[in-house]
Amino acid sequence: DKGHLRIVEAVANNANASSQVLNYIANQEMKRRQRQQSANNNDTSSFSILEAVAKHKNTSPSTLHSLSTYEYENHNITSLIARNPNTSKQTLSTILELQRHRQQYDSSSCVHVLSGIATNPNSSKQDLLTLSTHPDAYVRSAVARNIHTPTCILLQLANRRDGDGTDHCFHVKLELAGNTSLPQDQLDALSFDANFAIRVNVARNFNTRVDTLERLALEDDTLDVCLAAMNNPKTKNMNNATLKNCEHLLHNDNNDMKEEGSSRLSFKRRLLIASNSMNPTLLEKLLIVTTDTNLKEEEHYKIKYAIARNIHAPEKALAVILSASSTSSKEDQRIRAAVACNPRLPIHFNIKLSQDMHPHIRTCVAKNVNAPPTTLDKLSTDIDTGVRECVAQNHQTSGATLSKMVRTAIKHDENEYYDNNNCALLVTIAQHPNTKPEILSMLSRNKWTIVREAVARNPRLPVFHLKELSLDDQTSVIRELSKNSLVQRVADTLSSQIVV
Fold first, then answer.
1. Residue 499 phi/psi, 5° resolution?
2. Which of residues 3 and 191 earns the better pLDDT score?
3. How far apart are CA 234 and CA 285, in angstroms?
4. Which range, of 165-169, 199-203, 266-270, 360-364, averages the lowest pLDDT?
5. In whole angstroms, what is the distance from residue 426 CA to residue 430 CA?
6. CB of 169 within 8 A of CB of 141?
7. What gap in Å lies between CA 481 and CA 474, rounded to an integer?
8. Known SUPFAM superfamilies for this protein (predicted)?
């Protein structure tokens, strides 16, 4: 019956379900569907169960193979099997052959399955080679994204030209630029691509040569590319060496920064210091020399913005930045927002920015991972919904503040002032680690299903509410409850108490 199917589906979605249990569920569902087909019953209720098995991290290769041959015409299930890292090389090859013999080899549903095979770490070299020539760019892009794709195939994709002799598809090149298995020479070649998005991926790639990253960081015309190269973990050594050179110039040229010459720091080198320097004195000094008339106004702004985001920025520098960015202009708001998001922001700045007239700035304060609980408590009654939502999401928010927010929201609900914003707030609080057990008990009986689902996910849910939620009339609540680690802990405790 439907109640039984709901329980089976919940088990199939449980992250702790064993491979044996999943195999049993799959076999029983396939048999049940065969009986329905024999009786000319086209009920599709079991699809969600088989889909849960197909995507589960514990499903065995043999179970996935059985599903792939039984449900090969169901693209949703086949696609999930193709993406499952437990699927064997042989099964993937079988799926590919079945798809190739279909009449619509390049249809959207078929492409979705093939792209799953293309990204699977177990796909064979021959299958990846076949897919690398597929007419759909989405499939070829998936091959280019796979870090297990052999180098020879990646090179073939990189050097491929379309029929008119033009460069290969943008999406394929974009994936190649982000693939850490692509040879460094090819990454260097892509670093000169006309499209900045491709250069950004090269700059983020851990396999890109340091000299290429340095060129992108200091010479590229696009700021996004420069910042991506500067933030690449591989550039730490390069940044340290370049920073020392920049810092040396900054120390020696403090009085000569406005003069043209070989020692003059370029804007991008200053930006490198602003973004990455861990020397508070240097950052403060750099802020002073941004008055250099040779810098454009936009460049002044970008350096101040980078310093505002730098967690090593000294308090004095942040004070100068805030005092010079007090207007309602878009640029000044962005700088104040960057300061408000800085995790090392001093408390008195945090308090000051929490009173900013612009909700966006107060939202950034509410998001700050080190915001003091007192500031968050004050912002919990903010007139702006987005600010209150961020307070509810912040792990620094105390249980007392969360309790106050829940009672206020429920009071509004009772007075018929309820809206969707209150619902979203209750969902956030229901899954917060600091929410008190008595508040979770209150929310477990909330009339909104989405709120009860959030409560069911919270591992701090009082144990005595497990039974109540397990009998909920909504399948989705039971499904979320089955994923809760609390359920497994209770089961383990009971098992240990059983005397054989």
1. -95, 120
2. 191
3. 27
4. 165-169
5. 6
6. yes
7. 11
8. ARM repeat (SSF48371)
The pLDDT tens digits of the residues spanning 279-309 come to: 888 888 888 766 655 778 888 888 899 999 9
Domain ranges of the chain: 1-120, 345-397, 400-500
Lookup: tokens for 466: 């497990």
Q: What residues contact residue 123 under an 8 Å CB cut-off, 6+ apart?
A: 89, 92, 117, 131, 146, 148
How many residues are present in the chain?
500
d(CA 326, CA 454): 40
Task: Say if pTM beats, i.e. exceeds, 0.85.
Answer: no
Assess contact for 226 and 217: CB atoms under 8 A. Answer: yes
Closest CA to 277 of 240, 308, 234, 328: 240
**Alpha-carbon span 486 to 405, nearest angstrom:** 25
Which is nearest to 456 in space by CA: 443, 447, 225, 434? 443
Tokens of 120: 């699977």
User: Rounded to whole angstroms, how far apart are CA atoms 246 and 256?
Assistant: 14
Q: What one-letter code names the amino acid at 88?
A: S
Distance (Å, rounded) from C-alpha 462 to C-alpha 60? Answer: 34
Residue whose structure tokens are 């982000």:
178
Strands (E) in 35-95, as ranges, are: none
Here the tokens at position 85 are 């890292």
Q: SS3 of 161, please?
A: strand
Question: In DSSP terms, which residues pair with 167 in a beta bridge?
Answer: 161
Beta bridge mates, 372: none
Residue 123, by phi and psi: left (phi above 0), alpha (psi -120 to 50) or beta? beta
- The residue behind tokens 């993406």 is 83
Calculate the alpha carbon distances from 118 to 97, 98, 168, 435 in Å. Answer: 14, 15, 18, 43
The rounded distance, in Å, linking the Cα atoms of 238 and 272 is 11
- The Cα–Cα gap between 74 and 46 comes to 12
Q: What is the pLDDT of residues 42-84, one digit of tens each?
A: 655 558 899 999 999 999 999 999 999 876 667 889 999 999 9
